[in-house]
Design goal:
The structure is a homodimer of 190-residue chains. Helices cover 75% and strands 0% of the residues of chain A. Chain A is mostly helical and 190 residues long. The first copy, chain A, has 2 domains: 1-53, Orthogonal Bundle (Arc Repressor Mutant, subunit A), CATH 1.10.10; 61-189, Orthogonal Bundle (Tetracycline Repressor, domain 2). The interface between A and B is medium-sized, with 35 and 35 residues. The structure holds a DNA duplex (30 and 30 nucleotides).
Chain lengths: 190, 190
DNA sequence: ATCCTCTTTCTAGCGCTGCTAGGTTACACG
DNA sequence: CGTGTAACCTAGCAGCGCTAGAAAGAGGAT
């Protein structure tokens, strides 16, 4: 038994290494630099080994994205927990979201812009995704009024996401970012 | 002179054909299907001819995107012009924006999600881009209150853009789309 | 200790991509 | 009717994601 256990452990370790290396490479040189050949070289195995762990390159990106969702959820939770009252809670959670997108742009890209197939808004949705959305929702809830909380959360999220993607793609001038965020917050705090 | 004129006209025609064919191919099979080889085959010239018109594939996509911006601006203008009073004008313009993104998703992708290098929010910004944004701004203006109109427009735009991209990427359930749009509109009509 | 088996891993290669160097063809002009 | 130049194409480079089939290695049985 122990031998097989060791093998499975080694496999899991190697899989983790693939994910970690893919992430590091993406963060250092962008997703375009993440090729199966370079990944193989970095993990010191041949290319086909990657395909014994993942269905393809997209699946590797999805695995990195999942890590991102876990971290984002943790940061949103921390921001909400640290907020003194519900009034500022939304601003703090929003700031955490924006901070995440700004400091980990490559991760954000894999999570939201690239079309890795992670199911959203469904029972099969992985837990970290639901948790992240949940933090946003709880920050919105006290301010939701008569609106459906989920729908209102989705709209707020879309606002944040739109601001981040348009700014990063050079569609919005970065210098006015804070002012725009303040306007968005005011719309939803009212 | 006439000969050279004819040649220049032919060149312009061919350049337009490249753009048109790229767009058709993208709309029929998606941007992944738009390869330089297939484009060359469709315009019945060899591959290098493309590079005598455009710096590379990205530049071809940018040209298609520019067509998209022109059409979007026209549709937004029409929607605003047809709106009876400023109160409904924003809703109509927003509906036109959403309609554009939904009926021409491939164009929308080239315009906003792919990173073609078109300068935004700058004096060098091509006219169609400025016009499209201008239509949104004029629809927002009567409702802006004390906010900076540009900033408020940008936030509203980000909201629309976020809703469209998240929905298209499968991050938001399509069936609640109208409800979300209504919430966004209410936030900005207040 | 040796053989066999089955898993793991690698080598090699397919068909594709964007892009370009260098040779060929066609055409306006003297 | 030659000639210089501009237009164009053939062929190929280096890279991509992915995979078939050979080689190597580890475990169990004799």
């Amino acid at each position: 038994m122990s031998i097989q256990e060791r093998r499975e452990r080694d496999r899991r370790d190697r899989e983790q290494r693939i994910i970690a290396v893919a992430r590091e490479l993406a963060e250092a040189e962008g997703w375009d630099a993440v090729t199966t050949r370079r990944l193989a070289e970095l993990i010191e195995y041949s290319q086909p080994v990657l395909y014994s762990h993942f269905k393809g390159k997209a699946a590797i990106m999805a695995a990195v994205a999942l890590e991102g969702f876990t971290e984002l959820a943790a940061e949103l939770r921390a921001a909400r927990a640290a907020a003194p009252d519900p009034r500022t809670s939304l601003a703090d959670v929003a700031a955490a979201y924006v901070g995440f997108a700004e400091t980990r742009p490559v991760l954000y890209e894999a999570m939201f812009t690239s079309d890795v197939d992670l199911t959203f808004a469904s029972p099969q949705t992985p837990a970290p995704l639901q948790e992240g959305f949940g933090e946003l929702r709880e920050a919105i809830r006290p301010l939701a009024g008569s609106d459906d909380v989920d729908a209102r959360t989705e709209v707020f999220w879309a606002g944040l996401h739109g601001l981040m993607t348009l700014t990063r793609a050079g569609r919005l001038p970065p210098e006015d970012h804070d002012r725009r965020l303040a306007i968005l917050l005011r719309q939803f705090a009212a």
